[in-house]
Every structure is written in C-alpha cells, then in structure tokens.
Design brief:
Pathway: Glycolipid biosynthesis; glycosylphosphatidylinositol-anchor biosynthesis. With about 850 residues, the chain is mainly alpha-helical. The chain contains 34 helices and five strands.
Amino acid sequence: MPRIKALTTGSVPSFADLLFNLDESGGGSPSLATQDTWLAQIRARGAKLVFYGDDTWLRLFPPEAEFFARAEGTSSFFVSDFTEVDQNVTRHLPRELASNDWQGMVLHFLGLDHIGHKTGPQGVNMLPKQREMDDIVKTIYEAMETESHLEDTLLVLAGDHGMNAGGNHGGSGPGETEPALVFASPKFGAMRKGKGHESPTTPKEGTEFSYYRKVQQSDLVPSLAGLMGLPIPRNSLGVFVRELGGVWEGRGSGTAMLWGNAVQMLRIVEVTYGVQAFRALVERRRACLGVGGEASEDCGGCGEPAGAEEVLARYWARASSAVSGLDTDQSASWDTIDGYIYDFLVAAQETLSSAASSYDIPRMVVGIFLSATALTLAILSLPNLWPPTTAGVFFTATSLLYGAMMFASSYVEEEQQFWYWLACAWTLLLTVRSVSRAEGSKRTKIRIVAAGALILAVHREATRWNQTGQKHAGAPDIVHGFFPDYHMTMWVLVLWTYGRNCYTLARRTFLDILPTEAAVAAAVALTVPAIVFKLNFTQADAPELVQGLAMMIRRWTEPFSLVLQAQVTFGLLALATATTVVLAVGLPHGTSIAGKDGPAVNVTLAERLHYLLTLFLITQSRTPNIPLFLGLELQLLALSVLLDASSASNEKRTSRRNGFISPTELATTVLLCSHVYFFCMGGSNSISSVDLSNAYNGIADYNVTAVGLLLFTSNWTGPVWWCSAAVSLTFSKRVKAVESAKPIINGKRGWVDDERERLRRDAKAGLVSTSNDPATQDHWMVYVSSMTAFVAASLLAVMVACTALRTHLFIWTVFSPKYLYVMAWCVGWHILVNIGLGSLLRWLGEMA
C-alpha cells in the first residue's frame, strides 16, 4: 500500500500506511479516490480506466467510487498461489488490447512476489514465472506496434519493491529497495537518432542492481504526467526523469517539462516555508545573480546559505533567472538551464521528503521520560538488589548490551545472533552453577549435566530451523532446505507433536477431573479436528508440503470451509478450557488445598491450561514450525532440573505448592528462551517477516480485535508458550501422577480419597508460620518486576536511538520497524501475556 501511494500520488507515504496493509477488508485504509493522482487526472479528462490484479488497488480506489470502468481484484494473502493469481489478470488482456474505449490500464501481477516469499529469488519457480512475464510484456508491446488505436500508448513496467535473498522485502538491502523501472514505446526509437543509448547486461561496478541511474519511486508521477500531457498531481514530490526529455523534437522541449515540474514543486515549498518569507529570500538571492542565473562578481551580503530554506531560495533564484533570461540571451545553453532547474528539483525533493517525515520531538522526549520512569520504578520494586547474584549480574549485563546494540543498524538486523549466543552462555553457566550447588549423589550431578547438554542440543537444532535477519536470509535451513524434499519426515514430526500433546492432555490436563476413558476421549476429540484443519490449511497455503498425503481425509472434509474447521477447533478448545477450570476448581472445594501456598498437588490448574494453550499455539503456527514444540517440551523438562537443582531438600520441596526457585534465574531463562524461539520460528526485526497466514483462522469477516489477537499469537508463539511455562515452573510437584495412581478396586478409585486425606494433613502441617521461607515469597511478582525492568530498558534504548538517529539513512527501514517490534514486545508480550495471562494462570494455579 505505501508503494502504491508513492507510485500514484508522488507523495511520501506515512509509516502508518504500512499498518493498513493488515486490514484485508480495507475498512481502515485511507482511500486515494479523492486525492490528486495521475489516475484522477486521466479521469478528469472524461477518459476510462481499467484495472486487474492486486486488490489493494481496489481498497485504495474502492468500487463504490466508480473509479475504474472495469476491474477485477485478486487477493494477495494466499502466497502459495503462483498461477491463478496471474491468470486472472492475463485472461483479460486480449480483450482489453483489442478495445479502444480506455485511456489507462493498470495490471498488478502477484505471482513473482508470491514465489519470492515462498521460495526466494533462486526458487525453481522463479525463472519460469519471469519468462511468463516476459511473454506478457512482449504481447503488449507487439500490440502497441501493430494496433492503430495503441500507437500513442506508453508502457511502464515497474516493481513496487524488490526482495532479499530470502524472498522478503521491507528492509534496507539493495535487492529490496532497487526495483526496476522501464518506459517503453515504439516512439522512443526517435531518441536513438544521433545519440548512443547503451543497454548494459551487468550492473555498474560496486553495485548489485544499478544498470543505468537511480530515480525515486515518486519520480514516476511527474514523468507520466509530462509524457501524457497531464497536470502533475499537486502533492507530488517527484522529479521528471530527465532522460525522457528527448522524446520531443525541438529545442527546449525537455526544459519545458522540467520547468512545469519545478513550478509545481515551488508551490509545495512556499506552503511549507510561507509564501512571503520564501519569496523575500528568493529576491535577496536573485540580487546576487547576473544575467542567465550566473553568480555576480559583486555579491556582497550574499554568503553561503544558512539552512535548507536558503539553499532552495538560491537554487530557485538561479533557475528562474536563467529561464527569464531566455528572452534576452538567445545563446543560452539549454543543458545549463536544465541543470539549474534540476538542482532545484532534487534539493526540493530531498528537503520536502525530510519535512514529510516530521518528528514531534517534545512527544518523543515525553516517551523517553515515561520509559525511564517505568525502568526506575521496576528496579525499585525488586526486593533485593544487594549483594548481587550471578543471575542478577547476567540479567543486568544482557539489558545493557541489548540497549547499546539498538544504536547500530547491523546489530538490529542481526539481533537473533545476540540471543542465540547469550542463551548458550546462560545454559552453560546455569549448568555449572547447578552442579556445584547440587546436593546428592554423583548420579544427581550427571543428571544435571545431561539436562544442560539436552538444552544445548535442542537449541542447536532450533537455531537452524529458520534462517532470519538480513545477512543470512535465504541461506539453507531446515524449513526451506530440508522439508520441501522430505515432507513425509516433517509430517511424522508434526503428528508426533500432536500425539505428544494429546497424551499430556489426557494424563495432565484431565487428570483426576475426568475418568481415564473420558480423559482420553476428550484429548482425542480436541486433537483430531486440529490435525485435520492444519492438514487442509497446509494444502491451501503450501501444497508442496502435502502433495498426495491423506487424500481420503482431505476429500471427506472438502465440503467444510477452512473457516468452519478453524471455528470447530477453537470452539472445542474454549469448551475444554471452561470445563477444566470449573471441574478443577470444584475438585478441592471445601478442602484445605484451595488456599494461597497450600500443599503441593499432582497438577495445578495452571499446568492443566498450559497444554490446552499449547494446542492453540500449535494451531496458530506454520506447519513446518510445529515440531519445534517437541524441543520446547524437552527444554522445559531439562530446565526444571537445572532450576530445581539448588532448591531445598526434597521433603520440604514436595510439601509446599510454591516452588523453591530463584525468580531472577527464572526471568533470565524465560527472557532468553522467548527471544530465541521468536527468531528461530522465523521472526525478525523486519516488517516483511510478519506472518499473516494464520491471522484469519476462523474469521469470515474482518475483525480488528480477532485478527490482531491471532496475528500476535501466530508471530509470538514461542514467547507466549514460555510465559505459560514460566508459571508452571513456579510450582512444585509433590509426586508424579503415575506414582500416585492406584489400581481400581471394586470399581472405585479409593486412591482419590487417600490423596485428599494426605492433602488435608499437609495443609494442617503447613499452618506453621513460614514468613521467612523462600517458598512462600511471591516469586511471580519478582519475576514480573524483573521482566518489566528489561522491557522498560529496551523501550528506552530504542526510543533514544530513534530520536538520536532520526536523520539516519536507515531510520525508516531498520530503526522504525524495530520501534514497532519493541512496542509489540512491551504491550503484547509483556503487559498482555506476561502480566495479564501469566498472572491469571498464576492465580488459578494457587487456587487449584
């Protein structure tokens, strides 16, 4: 959407335009139907426009405005469609080329973009698609040569963006920011007479994509207007492409185009700086010039310009003096005059583009102050700051290093490396520390070392799952390099993940609240619809990962839409959640276990809900990422060993519900793991990495709240999971469920009564004051305070970096997207998930 806005109005799109891209319905998108565009100028002549392609155009120029005489849009959200999305455009082409009732036709093909997102620029489908596009261009150009009603037609071939090695865009790399722009017409043949025009096949030395010279995307607008004899849109900041001036015969024709562009740009300059004030500066500068715009020998009082406004005044005074001197100086060089006008246009474009990116410094300072205040309050809320602990020092060093990293664009782009290495370092440190403080036999220490090794092994595989960032985008990884060739292996791992979660639902979520047979049936009833939905969704989104798998299931479920299948999955999850809460809370009703820091139980309500949340998060994940949940479970199991290794004696630990765990160690662990899994699941600090594929699961009509929730959970799956896991780690488990179970005697479960009796005895013994017992301290509040300190510190660092580097070359492509991401981490992950969901789960875990 931002690029289409630049290509039609010539203005600088706002950063908020990028967010409107998420609104598929177009309800929140700003319409361009009433703005001054080159399309509007064509319509103003009473001419007709036709459009086929990306339906983003129809959101900007809605059908109710009757902007296009004929139009058909294609959705850009299913990126697995490489064929029909273009055929739906191409099929209209023969009829439109034969018709003579339109004066403007827009074709926006999506196939190349979809292939880039799915397979990257080196994918096997890329070259055939490029050849297909070549044939379409050939068809159009040949029609322009042979059809009389198309003899005055201009063909413009433009890319709204490029792509990096991974097929994404939105960053600052040359492949993303340097798309091609071609003007083609049989009439351009006259430009070659007496003048050589090279057609290079290799880019200029030291560049990757620069064959001729670079122009701004907004330059298309005045160039189109000049070639088609249209008024330039009033808000355009584009500059007429100078080389196109040779289209017209006659001396000074190109100069006339540039001069019209300059007059249009002057109006914007005068509105920006004030008409009277700017004209006064121009007159002062004109007094320093001689005939033809040359500087006078005697120019006292006319020093170097002090600011951008005076620079523009000098350039305009020189250009306007040179043009007005044409009447008296017939020997004036047209190239020199063109250069004067061009200097003003380029300077005005740069200055006004910067002005369009206006910064409200006072508000930015207020934001920095609020972040600093939040950081200060979070630090003061921590119970013990001295003496420093190992975990505390590591947590502080992580926060400081992260803050310093936000001032370097390369570090922001490759942030995942920071978390990958720190996670390894913390795991090694935690393992060594746990071994040194462990009480027990040599076997216990071996168990701790094995747990640390397991975490590192899983970490190594997880970091190879998805290549992310800018430097290594497109490098081989498991998702894009292995699974497409071995999709059966992927589905074995996917089904294993679903099966494992189904088992934990039966053995943990429904333990003691449902009979075994009912628990198994309920777990299967939840899991099977989720598997069927994911299978059918993957067939629609990434058919190369399904191929001929489960044809019978897909045929049987074909009558049911994906929306309905997702709604069934989510509905069953909601029903299971409500039922679990009611039954689990009712189980201890009237007993002593329903109290704060009561005796330990086999499974807390927080853990019961954790596995239901896991199934929801699996549903919201891309299919190739689902096996990572096996790694998550393995790492959680190993971390519980490491974090528990230095706790109190086993007898004391199993008697209280609150775990004997360091909240700072927990905060450090969850912080690192959350960021690691955000990146290894494909996330980055680039807007292009936002995965929209699961943002509309179960939604028939656009709903900003529902889409926002699904979009966040599908992109922050790992961090949300680790928040729930953190809550589970704050509770101790008295005994394992399998150890407490007794066989059924005479059709009755007598062991349930024994368990309740034991819980009553434990609670009675726990009435003794334990105010100084670390297990009774509110670990969760310390954990939340620690997380708040990091989030506030990161937000403060990014705000300061964006303010200090607001004129940086990569402010819009690196630092501003990072600001959006850090706000998502702050509001979405920390406030809503950590504080909101986490505190709710913690409270429920204390209740039952």
